[in-house]
Amino acid sequence: MDDYDKTCLESALVGVCNIVQQEWGGAIPCQVVLVTDGCLGIGRGSLRHSLATHSQRSESNRFPLPFPFPSKLYIMCMANLEELQSTDSLDCLERLIDLNNGEGQIFTIDGPLCLKNVQSMFGKLIDLAYTPFHAVLKCGHLTADVQVFPRPEPFVVDEEIDPIPKVINTDLEIVGFIDIADISSPPVLSRHLVLPIALNKEGDEVGTGITDDNEDENSANQIAGKIPNFCVLLHGSLKVEGMVAIVQLGPEWHGMLYSQADSKKKSNLMMSLFEPGPEPLPWLGKMAQLGPISDAKENPYGEDDNKSPFPLQPKNKRSYAQNVTVWIKPSGLQTDVQKILRNARKLPEKTQTFYKELNRLRKAALAFGFLDLLKGVADMLERECTLLPDTAHPDAAFQLTHAAQQLKLASTGTSEYAGYDHNITPLQTDFSGSSAERM
Amino acid sequence: MKIFSESHKTVFVVDHCPYMAESCRQHVEFDMLVKNRTQGIIPLAPISKSLWTCSVESSMEYCRIMYDIFPFKKLVNFIVSDSGAHVLNSWTQEDQNLQELMAALAAVGPPNPRADPECCSILHGLVAAVETLCKITEYQHEARTLLMENAERVGNRGRIICITNAKSDSHVRMLEDCVQETIHEHNKLAANSDHLMQIQKCELVLIHTYPVGEDSLVSDRPKKELSPVLTSEVHSVRAGRHLATKLNILVQQHFDLASTTITNIPMKEEQHANTSANYDVELLHHKDAHVDFLKSGDNHLSGSSREGSFKETITLKWCTPRTNNIGRSVLLEQPRKSGSKVISHMLSSHGGEIFLHVLSSSRSILEDPPSISEGCGGRVTDYRITDFGEFMRENRLTPFLDPRYKIDGSLEIPLERAKDQLEKHTRYWPMIISQTTIFNMQAVVPLASVIVKESLTEEDVLNCQKTIYNLVDMERKNDPLPISTVGTRGKGPKRDEQYRIMWNELETLVRAHINNSEKHQRVLECLMACRSKPPEEEERKKRGRKREDKEDKSEKAVKDYEQEKSWQDSERLKGILERGKEELAEAEIIKDSPDSPEPPNKKPLVETDETPPVEKSKGPVSLLSLWSNRINTANSRKHQEFAGRLNSVNNRAELYQHLKEENGMETTENGKASRQ
C-alpha cells in the first residue's frame, strides 16, 4: 500500500479489504487495527464525505465496510475522549464500527497524550484481542496445558431457535480415536495449532518450550523441552498409526486432533473444529452414539484390523445412489426406452433385464400419469415382434407379445392392471424352462 | 437457514381437475431409430405429456432435489385437488421419500377428462394445505418439548406451492383471498388446540401452467405481502420443460442452493476406456459452496445471469486423481482467466452420499509453524509411541445405533462410555519408557491389558494371578529387569531393588483399579501376598491381615501355577544368577505369612469406601503418592507407628540406607515417587 499525504480513511479501508482478500480469501477472520489521530480528513475522501454518500453507492464503488471477511475493526485514537467529543469525530468513527456489523471497538487515550498513555491504550487492545487461548488437553488422566492458535472464534448456530454464539471449552477432552481413512477429509470450520505450554504454579505461561538461540542452557524453555509432555506423545502416535483423536469442544460440539506435516522434518499437532451439532459428519453418525469398541459384541475393526464400521450408510439412499426415473429431459425418456428395446432384441437371453427395465418404466409412467407412453411402448414392442428375424428364438415373440399386452392393460389405468406395486412377470412358455437366464 | 423457516414445511397442491388432462403440446420423440435398423420403417408418432404429467414430474423433481440435499427436517406434504382434496402423505419422516409419493400418485392416476368440471376445484386442495400447515411436525414437537414453557418460541411457517390452470388474474386473486381467509379461520382453531400450531408465516407460490403455444390468461407477479401472515407470488409458466425449469429455479431459491457444472469427467465405461471421451454433470448444493466466488466477484457463470430467467452455474474441471490415496475423492479445478490453475473444491463420497467440499485456496495463516519437537517435551526421546498407538486402537470408536440402557433404566450414552474407558485406561499410564518397568516387560502384559477393564472374568483373574506368580518366579530366578538407568550413576539399582521398584509399580497399577470390582481386589490381594518385601516387622503385619482362606487360595493357586509354569517365556530363565539363595528367601517370606501374629485391627487393608480423588490439579502429584498418602493415613490410625517410618520420606528411604550409601543417591530418585 502506498502512503499519501491526505487523510482518506475510505481508501485505506479499501486497501486493507483488497489485501486481506487477496492473501487470505473471505473465510479467515482478520483483525484490522486503524490508528488515527481522530481527524477525519477534509472534503472529498474525508470520512464525513464517505459516510454522507454511503447510501448512494453502487456495486462498483461499494463502501469497504462491512469487510467481506470475518473481522474486528479496532480504532486506536491518538486523542482523548474529550477532544474527540468536541467534534463529531467520535460519532463518525462509531458509525464505522456500526457499518462493520458492530464488530470492533474504539480505543481512546486516558489523560494527556504521552508515550505512557499510548502504551497503556495499546496494552488494552492486546489484552482484548491478542490474548492467547489457553486450554487443557485431556485424555482420561493424561493431560497437557496447551495454547490453541489462532484463537477459536465463537460460532453462531444458524439453525437454532436461540442463536447464542458457542464458545469452545477450555477443557479439550479426547473421547476416542478414529482411523484417518474412516474420517476421510471432513469439512471443518477452522484449523488450529495445538502448542504445548509450560505453566508455572500461578498459571502464567513460562514458555512454549521453543528454544531460542540467544537463551542460555538452563532457561525455562530448555527445561520444558525435557519434561515429557502428553501432546508430544499423542502427536507421535497419531502420526505413526494414521489416526485422529476425536475431541469434545463443548455440548454437541466436536473436533479432531491430528498430526500435520509441514515438511519432512517438521510436523505439528493440529486441531480442526467440526460444525457444532449432534451429527457433524453424516458418515460417522451421531457423535453421542459413538462408543468404545470393547462394548461391541465383536470387534468392528476385525481381529486382523481388516474392516471398519465406517462409513455408515444413510437410512434412505440418495436418488443418485439408486435407479430413480427422471424424464424431464427427453433424453432421459429415450434412454429408458432404448434400454428396453436393446434387451427386447436379445430375448430370451435377456428376459430378466428386459422385464426389470420394463417394470421400471411402467412404474414411473403410472406415477406420472403418463399412460400414453405405456401405449406407445406397447406398440413399439408389437412392431419389434413383427421385425424378429427367422433365426430368432420362438420365446422372443411370445415374451414381446405378452409384454405389449400387459402394458396396454396398464395404460387403461384401471386398478386391476395399473397397480403400482404390480410387476409384469415373464410369460411361462414351453421354452422358458430350458432357456438359461442370464443377467 | 433456520430450522423452522418457511422451508421446514412445503405443501404441494397439484390440480387434478379435468383440464389438467390436456396435452402440454410439447412432443417427445420416444421411438429413436438406431442406425443399423431395417430401412423403410416409419418411427412411431411422438407423444406428449399432459399438463398433469408435467406438473407431477416437475414437483417430484423438486422433492428429489430437496430430499437429496436435506434428508431430514425439510418436509413435504403432497395434496391433489379435484372434487375434493387428496392428502397423499403426512409430515412424518418415514413418509418423506420419493417412493412413497410415487406410489401414492400412481394410486391417484391421471385426471379424468370426462369428469364434471363444475365439481372440481383447486380450492379444496388449498384449504387442505392450510389445514396441514397447522399440523405439528415431529421436529416442531421435539423442539417444543425441549423448550418447555418457552414452547411458543418454536416457529410455524410454511410454503404452499400450488400448480394449477387458472382462468384469469381475478381467479388468481380469488384463490389468494381464499387462502388468506382459511389461514385466519384455522389460526383461530389452532389457538385453542394443543395439537395444532398457528401459522405465523405462509408463502404462497401460485404457478399457472398452460399448454405451449397458447396465450397466458394470467400475468406474473412478484412476491407481495397480502397480510402479515401471507405473502403470495404468481408465476405464469408454459407446461413441458418450461415448468420443470421453473421448479428447478424455485427449489434453488427456496433452499439456498446453487449449481456447479463439473466438466471433463472421463467416461468410465469400457467402450470409452481408451478414448478421451468425457462428459459434464450439473450438481445442486448449498450455495455456501460458492461463497468465495460470490464475495470475490470472480465468478465464472456460464449462461447469462439475467434475473432468474436463465440458470446460473459455476463450471469446475474434474482433476482425475493420479494416485488413489485420497480414497473416493476427486479434486475440482477452477478455470481462471489468467490461465493459472486453482484447486477450489473437492468431491467425495461416503456411504453413497456425495459431498462437495470447499477448499481454501488462499494463503494459510499458519505458515512455518514451529515443529512439535521444538516445543515442550520435544527433547524427550523415549516416549511410549508404540504403546500409545496400541492404546489408541483399543480406544477406537464405533457406532452404537440401537439405544442401550443402564441398570437403572436410564439411557446409556455410548460417547460417555468411551470417556469412562479412557479414564480407566489412563489411571496409571507412564508416558516415557524410562519412567516404567512393568510396561517394558512382556511378562506383565497379560495383567496390564485386563486390569484396566471395568469388570473381570474368572479367567482374567486367573491370568492376572498367573502373571504375578510368573513374576515371583522370575524374581526367584533373579531374572534381570528392564530397569532404566537413565539419570543414575553407575550400574543402577541392584537386582533386589529392581524387583522392589517393579513390584511397587505393579501395585500402583493394580491399586488404581481395585474399586472397579471385587475381582480387581482379588488381583491386588494376590499381588500383596506374593510380592517380595523385606521381612520387616511392618510388612509382616500387613501380610498378617490377610484372611486365612485367601492365603489358602493363593497357595493353592501357586501350586496350580507350578504345574503350569511351562507356559512362561523360557528365554527369561537363562542367565539367572544367585538362584538358590534368593529362592530360599522368597519361599520363607511366603510361608511365613500365615503364621504371623494377628494384627490388632482386622479391618481389611483395602478400603473401598475411600476412593482416590481424581487428580484434577496440574501439579506433579502421582497416583502413587496419592495412594501412599492414603495408606499412610489409614495405617497410622491402626497401630503405633514403626519408629523408622516416622523419620522416613514416602515410607521408603529408611529401609534402604545401605543402598543409599552404595549408590550415593536417594532411592526414590529412580522409583515412582519422582514420576509425574
TrEMBL record, chain A:
GO terms for biological process: snRNA 3'-end processing. It comes from the Eukaryota. GO terms for cellular component: integrator complex. It is found in: Nucleus. Signal peptide: none annotated. Residues 130-277 form the Integrator complex subunit 14 beta-barrel domain. Its main location: nucleus. Keywords: Nucleus. Residues 325-432 form the Integrator complex subunit 14 C-terminal domain. PANTHER family: INTEGRATOR COMPLEX SUBUNIT 14, PTHR13532. This is Integrator complex subunit 14 isoform X2. It comes from Physeter macrocephalus. The lineage of its organism: Eukaryota, Metazoa, Chordata, Craniata, Vertebrata.
UniProtKB/TrEMBL annotation, chain B:
Keywords: Cell cycle, Cell division, Cytoplasm, Mitosis, Nucleus. Residues 534-573, 587-621 are annotated as: Disordered. Coiled coil: none annotated. Residues 587-606 have a biased composition (Basic and acidic residues). Its main location: cytoplasm. One of its GO terms (biological process) is centrosome localization. The keyword Transmembrane helix does not apply. It is found in: Cytoplasm; Nucleus. It holds the Pfam family Mat89Bb. GO terms for cellular component: cytoplasm; integrator complex. Belongs to the Integrator subunit 13 family. This is Integrator complex subunit 13 isoform X2. It comes from Neophocaena asiaeorientalis asiaeorientalis.
